[in-house]
Amino acid sequence: MATQVKLAAERRTALGRSSVKKIKAAGAVPAVIYGAKDKPEALQVSRRDINAILSHASGENILVELEIAGDANRLALVQEVQHSPVGGAVLHIDFHAVSMDEMIEADVPLEPIGTANGVKNFGGLLEQSLRSLAIECLPRDLPDVISVDVSTLNIGDAIHVRELPLPAGVTTRVPADLTAFSVMAPTVEDETLAAAAPAAAPEVIKEKKEEPDAAGAGTKDKK
Q1: Which residues have a Cβ under 8 Å from the Cβ of 77 and sit 6 or more positions away?
Q2: What's the pTM?
Q3: Cα–Cα distance, 175 to 146 (Å, whole number)
Q4: How far apart are CA 111 and CA 133, in angstroms?
Q5: CB burial class (10 A; 0-12, 13-18, 19+) of residue 214?
Q6: Which domains occur in the chain, in start order?
Q7: Do 84 and 91 meet the contact criterion of CB atoms below 8 Å apart?
Q8: pLDDT at position 38
Q9: Which residues contact 8 (CB under 8 A, 6 or more apart)?
């Protein structure tokens, strides 16, 4: 299941660039929570705490129980994390408020497990057409990753969305006949035919004869 952790947060009343600089100087990261039936609310969280959560997360989907000072705890999904292009420091976080009894939507990575028989014994190539799957579930059923055993696939075989091992409580609206994994036949260049092909005859460069022009240029005077 998706990582679920507790995270202390404080409300932000001052907005703007100057306030953001003060927040960062104090070792915090600006954030916002939105969704559900409440209006978006500006927050700030500890940079050290959020870095620890992100570094220990086992998947892309992280459920956070926000402990907002002076208010009841709120469950949220880490929706977006903005990083600095230089150094990768966390600049801003978007939290999407969710409820334990309401369905949520998320993209979950698909992970192939094992080595396909067509790859191992026949030199085929495993092709992954879907890197992630859009799913629906309750927050408590949200998986970190969907693992798919591909070891029995031979050349020409495929695993479609309808055949994916979705965890209990998880559904998807992705078309059932869409291919997720397949094993392609090896593409080997026919060196025999290439070697048997006749070599191109070398081009013979002949000296170009000078053509006389209308005024007689390029011709020798006869005496």
Answers
A1: 61, 62, 63, 64, 95, 96, 98, 104, 106, 139
A2: 0.73
A3: 17
A4: 11
A5: exposed
A6: 3-97 (2.40.240.10), 104-188 (2.170.120.20)
A7: yes
A8: 77
A9: 45, 46, 49, 67, 69
Cβ neighbors of 202 (< 8 A, separation 6 or more) are none
In the prediction, which pLDDT does 197 show?
55
Q: What is the C-alpha to C-alpha distance for residues 48 and 53, in angstroms, rounded to an integer?
A: 9
- Compute the distance between CA of residue 60 and CA of residue 106 in angstroms, rounded to an integer: 10
Structure tokens at 183: 């094993």
pLDDT in tens, 167-209: 999 999 999 999 999 999 998 654 444 555 555 555 555 555 5
- State pLDDT tens for residues 13-69: 877 788 888 898 999 999 999 986 778 999 999 999 999 999 988 778 899 999 998
